[in-house]
Amino acid sequence: MSELVNYASGIPLALRVLGSSVQKIYINDEKEILRRLRQHPPIEIQDAFRKSFDGLHDNEKSIFLDLACFFRGENKDHVVNILDGCGFSTDLGIYALIDETLISLVDNSLEMPNIFQDTGRFVVCQENNKASKRSRLWDSNDIADVLINNSGTEAIEGIFLDASGLTFELNPTVFERMHRLRLLKLHCPTSEIHCKISLPQGLYYLPDELRLLHWEKYPLGSLPRNFNPKNLVEMNMPYSNMTKLWKGTKNLEKLKRIILSHSLQLIKFPRLSKAMNLEHIDLEGCTSLVKVNSSILHHHKLTFLSLKDCSHLRIMPTTVHLESLEVLNLSGCSELENLHDFSSNLKELYLAGTAIREMPSSIGDLTRLVTLDLENCKRLQHLPPSISNLKAMMTLKLSGCSNLKSLPVLDALFLRNSQRLDTR
């Protein structure tokens, strides 16, 4: 009974109803009982849930169903970004759901009792007997059936597929009838060798309504030519085969996060000059990338930029105009020799393993810098005197800097920060 007690999440009605239901089911296997109850919550639970759910505004109903089907346990700020992009008043909706005790906020993660999640999902299942005509799909069997048989419809708003252990081919028109698709996540773990979604004939279409495009191991060299990402809030496509995103410049006014990490074939930094709201760029491990073009200078809201382990990167423009940038990671860019001035807002700067010989004298202007990592910068010969101006410095890493000749400029830094400076 322990699993059933945990499933009830301490809700008195759930404990009583589940206990009563178990007595009526002549099965000794507790896991099988739980599986059945999760697929078909008892009528008493459904009725109690409906009293709360039916009294919600449409905004809160939609948000709750998205949370129950896709985002349980996710970071609140991340979810708000995506669902705001869908036109919801997400913050207001979340706190209304908290007031109704349907969800809770734990360490900024959105949580809900198991039984509420399953009842919310049951509401979606009741929309139609056919999975292809429901608004949200999360069951891998349902999704595989819809995608393989190319039976998607305009009813579908969200698809979250854990493709672990799955291998199948998709038709190039697989998304053509899903005009209202706003959330797409195809999760394919890197450690899972039996996980492959292939498109042997290419992909002709992606819906313009997409807010979240999360496709791990995307198999093609670019996105569909006619895809208009005007509504896209997040593009998360690690380990892709893309050499470029698309030809030309696209309207990306809503885009906030782009993650193309470990896309080994990516040869061009994406043209993102119209992504005026971009906050996060992760291109870690894109080993074919040689340069970052000057379009990056337009991203005045950018707070995070990682080019870690881009081992062929040689050209990196100044970031001095990126007044919001807090984290810049260039560690492992072993062919990067020259650095330009940095954003004065930086808090973390990672340059380990680069080929730099010296630091710009303007490093002393980074008065908010907390971490500076210069480990294994074997060509680095000296640090500018201005480094002693770094009043907020807490971590300075210099191990492996075998050509660093002297450190007299650090005296003032040590005297001021001796109680908290880590120089490993």
From TrEMBL:
Q: Which residues form the Disease resistance R13L4/SHOC-2-like LRR domain?
A: 313-415
Q: Do the record's keywords include rRNA-binding?
A: no
One Pfam short name: LRR_14
GO:BP terms for this protein? defense response
Q: Which UniProt keywords apply?
A: Leucine-rich repeat, Repeat
The protein depicted here goes by the name NB-ARC domain-containing protein
Q: Which residues form the Disease resistance protein Roq1-like winged-helix domain?
A: 58-125
Q: Which organism is it from?
A: Arabis nemorensis
Read off the InterPro entries from this record.
Answer: Disease_R_plants (IPR044974), Leu-rich_rpt_3 (IPR011713), LRR_dom_sf (IPR032675), LRR_R13L4/SHOC2-like (IPR055414), WH_DNA-bd_sf (IPR036390), WHD_ROQ1-like (IPR058192)
